[in-house]
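Title: Comparing notes on inverse folding

I've been comparing how different people in this forum approach sequence design from structure. To keep things fair, I'm posting one structure and asking everyone to reply with a full sequence. Here's the target:
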């Protein structure tokens, strides 16, 4: 369900691209240092966005260094890390662990069960430090499982639950920004859920899996997504952001649509090829 909140790198300046990749690579390094090399499979651009937003809001400065890694061994590149990076690292562990459990509950995949067992110790560590966030994750995923089993056909309900989950992750600390950050996280979470459902719709119908968009006219999906991300942007940019604002705008106004546009263009091409035969 994650992987939609990414930048349109072709539209970033060289300096902004360097900053963005430095934050992403910093998250990767933090995962390795805090939870071991295998934890880097939990790396997502969504959590890099969380670092961007919270660091910009709280004006958290990054510790920067150049180096190599196992993924890019030939050339040095920037690693940017701060205290928000560590928070996003822990949230990555919590999210992926709960996803493994969700996959096991849904499909009884043994690989998911094994992965959940492997990450249990690390998850327990995160829970002890962030009981509020982990408690909401567990509650929301249990509610999503219930809705999916009941076959609820209206997307508002499951999207709202996932929005609640992401909203809690956006609260790094309770302060005067908490209400707005919760709204940002909730709206973004609803956008991600519906985008993911739209992306998986054809496959889910074929496999007879639950998808709340199954009975919704396809032309209604984009207006809903547009409304959600527009409201999210309005709330987000009402905050006193202080750094990497161009990167954040790139992601919200362009990057989040890249998977949608790619799939839509591919579907149009396939339709054109079929009608030309």
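Reply #1:
Here's my take.
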């Amino acid at each position: 369900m994650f992987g939609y909140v990414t930048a349109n790198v072709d539209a970033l300046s060289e300096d902004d691209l360097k900053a963005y990749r430095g934050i992403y690579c910093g998250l990767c390094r933090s995962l390795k240092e805090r939870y071991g090399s295998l934890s880097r499979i939990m790396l997502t651009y969504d959590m890099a966005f969380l670092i961007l937003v919270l660091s910009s809001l709280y004006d958290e400065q990054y510790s920067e260094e150049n180096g190599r890694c196992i993924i890019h061994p030939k050339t040095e590149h920037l690693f940017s890390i701060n205290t928000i990076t560590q928070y996003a690292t822990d949230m990555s562990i919590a999210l992926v662990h709960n996803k493994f459990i969700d996959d096991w509950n849904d499909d009884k995949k043994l690989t998911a069960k094994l992965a959940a067992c492997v990450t249990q110790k690390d998850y327990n560590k995160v829970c002890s430090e962030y009981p509020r966030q982990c408690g909401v994750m567990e509650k929301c995923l249990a509610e999503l499982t219930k809705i999916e089993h009941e076959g609820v056909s209206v997307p508002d309900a499951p999207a709202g639950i996932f929005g609640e989950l992401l909203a809690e992750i956006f609260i790094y600390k309770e302060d005067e920004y908490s209400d707005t950050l919760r709204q940002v996280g909730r709206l973004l979470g609803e956008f991600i859920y519906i985008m993911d459902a739209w992306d998986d719709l054809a496959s889910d119908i074929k496999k007879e899996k639950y998808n709340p968009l199954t009975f919704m006219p396809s032309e209604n999906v984009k207006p809903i997504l547009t409304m959600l991300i527009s409201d999210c942007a309005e709330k987000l940019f009402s905050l006193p952001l202080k750094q990497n604002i161009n990167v954040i705008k790139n992601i919200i106004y362009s990057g989040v649509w890249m998977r949608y546009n790619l799939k839509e263009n591919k579907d149009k091409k396939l339709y054109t090829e079929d009608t030309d035969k």
